[in-house]
Amino acid sequence: MTATENTESETPEVEPGIPFILNGEEVRANEGELLISAAERHGVHIPHFCYHPRMSSVGMCRMCLVEVDSGRGPGLQPACMQPVMPDMKVNTESEPTTKAQDGVLELLLINHPLDCPVCDKGGECPLQDNAYAFGPGESRFVEEKRHYEKPISISELVYLDRERCILCDRCTRFADEVAGDPLIHFIDRGAQTQVNTFPEHEFSSYFSGNTVQICPVGALTAQPYRFAARPWDLAEVESTSMVDPTGARVALHSSQNRMVRIQGVDSDATNWGWLSDKERFIYEATDSPQRLVEPMLRDGRGEQVQTRWNTAIKNTVDALTGASDPRRIGVIGGARLTLESQYAWAKLLKGLGAVDNIDAQIGDGLPADLVMGLPKATIDSACAPGGVVVLLGADPKEELPTLYLRLRHAIQNDGVSLIEMSPRQTAFADSVAARLNPLPGAAGQIAGALADGMVGTSIGGIGSDQLTTAHALLTSDRPVTVIVGRGNLAESADVVVSAVAALKRLVPNARFLSGLRRGNIHGALEMGLTPGYLPGGQELTAKIDGWEMAPQTKGLDTAGILKAAVNGGLDTLVLLGADPLRDFPDAALAEAAFERIGTIVAVDSLMNRSTQRADVILPAAMFGEVDGTFMNLEGRVSPVNAKVTAPGQARPDWMIAAEVAQAAGGDLGFSRLEELQAEISATVPGFKGIDLATAGVAEDGPVISTARAWEPTLTETAPIPPADDYGLRLVVDRKLWDNGTMINASASLGNLVDDAVLTLSPADLDRLGGTSGEEVQMSIAGGSSQGIVAMADARIPAGAAHVPFGVKGVQAQELITAGDPVIEVRVQA
Amino acid sequence: MATNAYVPHAAGYVDNEGVKIVSSRFPYEDSHTLERSLATGGYDGMKKALRMNPAEVAAVVKDAVLLGRGGAGFPAGVKWGFMPPVWPRYLVVNGDESEPGTYKDRLLMENDPHQLIEGCIIACYALGLNTCFLYIRGEMPVAHERVAQALNDAYAAGLVGKNIDGTDVSIDVVLHWGAGAYIVGEETALIESLEGNRGMPRLKPPFFPAAKGLYLKPTIVNNVETLANLPWIISNGADEYKKYGSERSPGTRMLAISGHVKRPGVYEVEQGKVTFRDLFYGENYCQGIKDDNELKMYIPGGGSAPWFFEEQLDIPLEASEVGPAGSMLGSGAIVVMDETTDAVRACLRVVRFFARESCGKCAPCREGTTWEEKVLQRILDGNGRPQDIDLLLEIGANISPGNYPVAAHPDGGLEAVPFPPKQTTICPLGPSSVAPITSAIRRFRGEFEAKIAAASEMSGSAV
Amino acid sequence: MSRLNEENVALAEEIISRYPRKKSALIPLLHVAQEQEGHVTNAAMEHLAELVGITPAEVLGTASFYEMFKFEPQGKYMVNICTNIACQLLGGEELLHHAEKTLGIRPGGTTEDGMFTLEDVECIAACTEAPCLQVNYRHENRVTIKGFDGLIAQLRAGERPEIPNHGTLGKVRQHIPADRLAGIESPETAGTPEWYSSRTAPAS
Ligand SMILES: Cc1cc2nc3c(=O)[nH]c(=O)nc-3n(C[C@H](O)[C@H](O)[C@H](O)COP(=O)(O)O)c2cc1C
Ligand code: SF4
Ligand code: FES
Fold it and tell me: How many other C-beta atoms lie within 10 A of the C-beta of residue A355?
């Protein structure tokens, strides 16, 4: 027996943590914990303004001064900068402490306007609260207060009132440290110090709204919320954002049955309290003029007119039962729905109707077996210190912005190395460890070269140094996470699949994080809104209790459904919150399909290009109006809660499914949400033992993994035609602000959408004789050419041409032919 | 061109015929040139150091008890020892001299830039580092030009840069210049500024420069005068150095004495050997108060220092004596005020300086100093209220709680409160604004009251 | 159009190369920009942001902290009168009032002919020579009222050629020939100097 073993067995168990005395009582802090947070955990609140647990401490406001004795007598220390040291004595109630805090507060208040009654923050303002709790009653400050021009707009979404600002550095620190958009800054010095932007350079950050949330006073206000409500008549419920699959935790605030605000909730597992402006302000869509509030039917003259629910449901049933064969029915969409609604619709369509042409991905996804079957990482595991992340997909800043913030933090602060394999450089460009931006079509080949260790020479324009670095990182013993998404809509998903297969071969222990971008897409796949699977990733042959039948053969995906329609093979199309006319990356195909389909039934909340073409419209309740659950890209389940009642006759999607079933003479077997949730727990393998009514309510939700493993079947991708000297390969990806239905319907967000520009590597633009900022002619094989402004951008690899999807001007989906492995474009100056 | 003319040309400098450790070349008109430097032993200390082991050089400096001349008076050798064994590490020279009354680093840079450069190389060598930044206050373009020329000449002569003096030692000295902000003299603000940021101090701990300084790497910040002493110390040895000055404060200091004296000037003075009285009245020094007026008060160590009076005249000029008496020697800036001085007006002027120079980071300093200034201005303008005097003291207590350092009062029976003050702020700038207020009110409360009384009489108000 | 001109871009690059991180060169570069135009323009700040790899807001954040940077056109001569304590005691404030009257401007103002901008400034490190002032940061010591009038007359008459226009900081610049440079490395890669390791290696 060694000495260590000996001591270990005999030493009584030591309590973990650092002991210290807090107001006379011995308590323990975690290693390296700041006094302010250790005290808070032990129920002692130390007042503060500048400290924020998710950002570095600056110790500026001095409000958190407390008396600390580290052995050399008591002295005032800012608790936000002071790590707990063993045996230090802290007194947060002593006279010197309260005197110092009162003094600081008095000084913070002297120049602060007394406009609490008209301030957005009035009633929920830490400065106001502290002033009541500690402050002297009357101000001794008889001088003139500081004056600035009242609120100035610093961006489309945020106003700044510098008179109210207490210079806590939170917004500016957030912009710099967290968002990486240091566009607001302290300007001037001393008592003249103010927060401001550079003249004519707005604070245009995807994350600007966070500054409003963390501002401890009412200096920063959100344009959409200004004067919308008073804090005391706000009602609040916690929920999960359904805007993208990160599943950021949010609090919904309503006033008089109107959603007026969304705030981030600090969830350790997901968003750490941050939100993108899309997640934050998208609630505006819920009471937009585009809102569908009544059932509608196309009348004899072809007009969509209001009708009764019964009539609309009857027409829906007719459209479904009128099809001669379940294979003549197609269903597109479902990612907007809660898990429960997804299950209900899957059961209605597959379990009662044997329909399998169902696809929640609208041509911009990845094979469901791959998404469900890859060994999953969590956001935490991907961001854990010292890991390696491969980005095989789009720029997370554009598609998964809160995930982007987590990754950014990991790269900036925790030594995580990023291998960039996206089709163009991303927002991480300045901090990547290895830069491998494959040309469209080449990702599989590049990953294959890595897998084979063929890194000695450059491949497809990617230097041997970059390949070697990437290879070394991937074969080191550092944990590897691959983020898999669709970085290029003008490239077949097969390319991504083959790259995944190669990476999996090289790093057998790699874990994967899905980079899909549609709201509850992971729930949709899990609940079976994808061809070939029943809920839980079960084969079509599986038997599920209460499911009367199952589709016989694997159905079609969205492209397949649309093609079938064009060929006259479809009688009925059901849209479950989908707008393929705008959203499917092959505009010509979608348009041709819509022209031939017999009946279109749209279950949706907002009017859009596709619902305008529907024969039957069933108005669905939206986010904030329904209860249920959400599954994020990790497979984490968390609650979605209603805060307001749905307008007009709109109702939850699952209820609509139940009514359709009933009208068709069937029975889904549940009429209340709890019954539906119980059925999911009972029938879907991964959900066994999980109570959906409470999952994720008090903490981060449970992570559910699908009970299947993905085995690469694809050995060869479709051959990629060699690039010719004139052509460029098209890269099409999404931007955060696009013409999506929700954004269009949100009053404050619609005008954030940019015009489409074509970006090329500077060398290519030069070679083609173009000038940055001027129009060029762009054409695809067989298409007519159109004018578009071109910009040189070093983040685009040579040989590629980048056009964003779904913005103003040139519509990228008109350039894409679904199924083509890559798209060649020609550009002429 | 080197000339041998020996003329007391340098404005401000007064040759008091005492020992010259750092000002020995000042009397030469061409004192700033490489020729003059080399002709008078310049770079000998450096060459000697390069033949020693770096640790030996550091040991000599430590042994010499070279107290920092930037204000805090911390021994350079001890500070150097705080550097953890981490590289890269940097030396930053603090030439931001802006403390009211302070006027010596500018002379050292303008009149003998090579002595400073030599000191830099010696320090870099001892510390084992190869990049030194010489931060010169922006408002000193002549110092900037002289140091730039000296560096260009020294690089060309092989005395700085690659393979110094033919050895394998390579050290760069990079000239950097500021742009007007007193607070940047504070060492952590200086580092922020050198990183291209707003010069706002960092909190110590955790940002002690010796451990986490420039680029969060170990960094020594030393004052110009501190480094200018090194060539002499290395050339002559620690024992020789300690023959001058006092035991606790060896060597000399460059003192700027300004205000109401007959012969204001910058004097090189042995530490601890002379008293304030000697300085103000001595034949070799200031030769008495202007117009033979009565002395009213004096600031012994720059605008940040609490004021001294008649009773403190016999205190020797030594940090260890001045601190317990309620003030500090600080940056060697003595401002003398005679009986004609309006205490309220002088107080306001010093407070106003801190209000204008607050970096704005800490709420108490940013808001408190401007408030103090406004109240004082009101009193001076004849709009004071009786409660304003205590209000001033209470605002001060919000910035600097507890008893503020102050000199003993002969008749009020008030004891001296020793330096330094407590603070609710990150750096001592905010608390410094309390020094003139406490000093003036405790000594001349009557003057404040008189102004306020006159004001209420004028306005006919009863209060 | 007031980005740095070609010559100053080259100068900026030389200055940047002397720092382990580009942003450290920001204040010296702002001086270069100010020297070119007499004040720091928005276009120049945008240009500097590109040169050191930060946002214009960060450049402004730094620039506006420092008094010497002016964001609007200044007089050809900036007359900075010290009124801090040592100068106040010997008539600095009276000198300032005199200057206000003779020039017809308040501190911060510029004469209509664009010749002078007046400032009341803090201690300029010439306290023993009070009252003192600076013209474009060149010291004038022990300035009497008469002396002040004479100085203004001289400046108007162009009789002080040694004083450069506002913005020019030092007429002599540091220049390190490439072969004399010890070598500036980024803090991420720099290590212990070789000479140090060899001199501290335990004797064997
Ligand atoms: C507000 C403030 C201003 C200061 N200004 C200067 C200065 O102008 N020059 C200087 O050398 N030190 C100044 N110091 C002191 C520096 O922080 C630092 O202690 C000094 O440069 C260290 O050098 P030394 O050890 O050689 O004295 C200042 C300190 C404070 C708090
Ligand atoms: S005390 Fe004043 S100058 Fe010092 S850091 Fe705080 S605000 Fe800045
Ligand atoms: S919370 Fe600690 S100083 Fe602001």
Answer: 25
With beta carbons less than 8 A apart as the criterion, state whether A209 and A220 touch.
no
Task: Give the pLDDT confidence of B324-360 residue by residue, as tens digits.
Answer: 999 999 999 999 999 999 999 999 999 999 999 999 9
Other Cβ atoms less than 10 A from the Cβ of A299: the count is: 10
* pLDDT tens profile A112-129: 998 888 888 888 888 988
pLDDT digits (tens, 9 = 90+) for A323-348: 889 999 999 999 999 999 999 999 99
| Alpha-helix runs per DSSP H in A641-794 | 653-663, 673-683, 741-745, 762-767
Domain assignment present for A180: no
Report residue B186 as tokens. Answer: 């504070």
Identify the CATH assignment for B343-458 out of 1.20.1440.230, 3.30.565.10, 3.60.15.10, 1.20.120.520.
1.20.1440.230
B37, B149 contact by CB (below 8 A): no
Chain A residues inside the 8 Å CB shell of B358: 189-191
Peptide bond into B420 cis (omega under 30): yes
User: Does residue A542 sit within a domain?
Assistant: yes
pLDDT of residue A116: 87
Q: Exposure pattern of B302-335 as b/e (b: 16+ CB <10 Å)? A: bbbbbbbbeebbebbbbbbbbbebbbbbbbbbbb
A29-43 CB burial, b ≥16 within 10 A, e <16: beeebbbbbbbeeee
Partner-chain residue, chosen from A59, A61, A75, that has the shortest CB–CB distance to B203: A59
Given pLDDT bands bounded at 50, 70 and 90, which one contains residue A460?
A: confident
Q: Which of B193, B429, B433, B434 to mutate to test the pocket of ligand 2 (most atoms within 8 A of CB)?
A: B429
The larger pLDDT score, comparing residue A120 to residue B448, is at B448
Beta-bridge partner residues of A729: A800, A824
The CATH number, out of the four listed (3.40.50.150, 1.20.1250.20, 3.30.460.10, 3.40.50.11540), of the domain defined by the range B26-241: 3.40.50.11540
A412–chain B nearest CA distance, Å: 15
pLDDT digits (tens, 9 = 90+) for C163-201: 999 999 888 999 999 999 999 999 999 999 999 999 987
Question: Would the ipTM clear 0.90, i.e. be above it?
Answer: yes
- pLDDT of B9: 47
A814 and A754 belong to one structural domain: yes
Answer whether residue A506 is part of any domain.
Answer: yes
Question: Which domain covers residue A762, as residue numbers?
Answer: 728-828
| C56 contact A CB<8A | yes
Chosen CATH of B252-337 out of 3.30.70.560, 3.10.20.600, 3.40.30.10, 3.30.465.10: 3.10.20.600
Total of domains in chain A: 4
What single-letter amino acid sits at A633? Answer: L
Q: Which atom of ligand 2 is nearest to the CA of B361?
A: 7
**Do A654 and A575 fall into the same domain?**
yes
What is the band of B387 on the pLDDT scale with cuts at 50, 70, 90? Answer: very high
Do residue A345 and residue A412 come from a single domain? no
CA atoms of A251 and A240, how far apart (whole Å) = 8
Q: What integer pLDDT is reported at residue C174 of this predicted model?
A: 97
Domains of chain C by range and CATH?
6-66 (1.10.10.1590), 77-156 (3.40.30.10)
For chain A, the maximum distance between any two Cα atoms, rounded to a whole number of angstroms, is: 93
Model confidence band, residue B33 (pLDDT cutoffs 50, 70, 90): very high
Do the domain assignments include residue A263? no
Mean pLDDT for the stretch of residues C58-79: 98
Asked whether the beta carbons of C183 and B172 are under 8 A apart, the reply is yes
What is the rounded CA–CA span in Å between residue B152 and residue C172?
A: 10
List pLDDT tens digits, range A517-574.
Answer: 999 999 999 999 999 999 999 999 999 999 998 999 999 999 999 999 999 999 999 9
The verdict on a CB contact (< 8 Å) between C65 and A188 is yes
